[in-house]
Amino acid sequence: MPRKTQNSPARVSVADRFPELRLTAITGETVPIPDAAGALTHLQFRRFAGCPICNLHLRSVIARVEEISTAGIREVVVFHSTATELRKYQADMPFPVIGDPEKTLYRRFGVEASAKAVLNPHAWRALPGGWRYAVANAVAHRRAPLPLAPTNGNLGLPADLLIAGDGRVVAVKYGAHAYDQWSVDELLDAASGS
Prior knowledge:
Largest sheet: 5 strands, mixed
CATH architecture: 3-Layer(aba) Sandwich
CATH superfamily: Glutaredoxin
Strand order of the largest sheet: 5-4-3-6-7
Strand content: 15-25%
CATH topology: Glutaredoxin
Number of domains: 1
Distance between the termini: 19 Å
CATH class: Alpha Beta
Number of strands: 7
Helix content: 25-40%
Order of helices and strands: EEEHHEHEHHHHEEH
């Protein structure tokens, strides 16, 4: 189970036993975690539906999703938005997308929100590319580039958990700002060390 730390009441640590979950994706698909077939699960906690910073990162994951899958990793992405919001912005993702508008999973696993998410200069480097993609995608789909009032705001921090098929947590990263998550190479390195 998640361990308490000084900074967060429920952060997950390497070697913790991850609880068995059955989540529902925005497609209606049931997503078991840990993976019933024994694959590693990369459980990503992202910010809000349509987040340009999150989408920039997720495009890098999509570009290498076959390589990730070949390495025995299944992607599952959680946003603190409703399924309706997510269907507008994330419906074309090639992996399960989970809506958690009540932030139940975020609280359970110590994924926090902070003004540092967007005030940190390191997060700013992702904004130009994220905005370009958001605007182009909005034009193509005839919608607003971003939701005007995202569920739970825009101050969420990302987190990455890598969970073995037996439920053992093999790697963890809690982001310090909005663009502080594993790169695909870091994910593959973490998986190879498991």
